[in-house]
């Protein structure tokens, strides 16, 4: 998270790209298929996330969780990044420092990665 806030151009670029992808998806304009699923036939950790986000926008929380359980978590992540890249530089530097310390103390990126791997493997069981 801190990398996207520290490098404002990267954070804003990722946010704009995600917003554009969301707009196209909302209007039913497909941009790309999942290359991992195309090659392996198995869902990647992000498969279903677009449908999940669309279900969230329509207030269908159960359907959103069914498509992908991590959409809400990633939306909160990107909301924090959006706030981080819009605040003035002096405040942003302080937030980056405190967020960096929090990330090191909690090691949340590592734990989140492990949970995503377990989640993905359990999804694959249903496809075999």
The DSSP helix count reads 8
The termini sit apart by: 34 Å
User: What does the average pLDDT come to?
Assistant: 92
Class computed from helices, strands and strand pairing = mainly alpha
Tally of separate domains: 1
- Quick one: how many beta strands? 0
Query: pLDDT under 50 segments (min length 5)?
Result: none
Commentary on this structure:
The chain has 128 residues and is mainly alpha-helical. It has one domain (2-125). The chain has eight helices and no strands. The longest helix is centred in the N-terminal third of the chain and has 19 residues, at 8-26. The N and C termini lie far apart (34 Å).
Primary descriptors:
single chain; 128 residues; mainly alpha; 0% strand
Fold blueprint:
Layout: H1 2-6, H2 8-26, H3 35-40, H4 49-57, H5 61-67, H6 71-86, H7 89-106, H8 108-125
């Amino acid at each position: 998270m801190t990398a996207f806030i520290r490098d404002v151009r990267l954070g804003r670029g990722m946010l704009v790209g995600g917003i554009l992808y969301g707009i196209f998806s909302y209007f039913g304009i497909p941009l790309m298929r999942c290359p991992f699923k195309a090659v392996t036939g198995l869902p990647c950790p992000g498969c279903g996330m677009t449908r999940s986000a669309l279900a969230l926008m329509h207030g269908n929380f159960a359907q959103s969780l069914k498509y992908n359980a991590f959409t809400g978590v990633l939306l909160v992540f990107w909301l924090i990044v959006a706030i981080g890249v819009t605040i003035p530089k002096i405040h942003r530097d302080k937030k980056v420092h405190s967020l960096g310390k929090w990330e090191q103390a909690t090691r949340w990126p590592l734990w989140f990665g492990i949970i995503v791997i377990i989640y993905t493997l359990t999804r694959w069981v249903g496809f075999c």
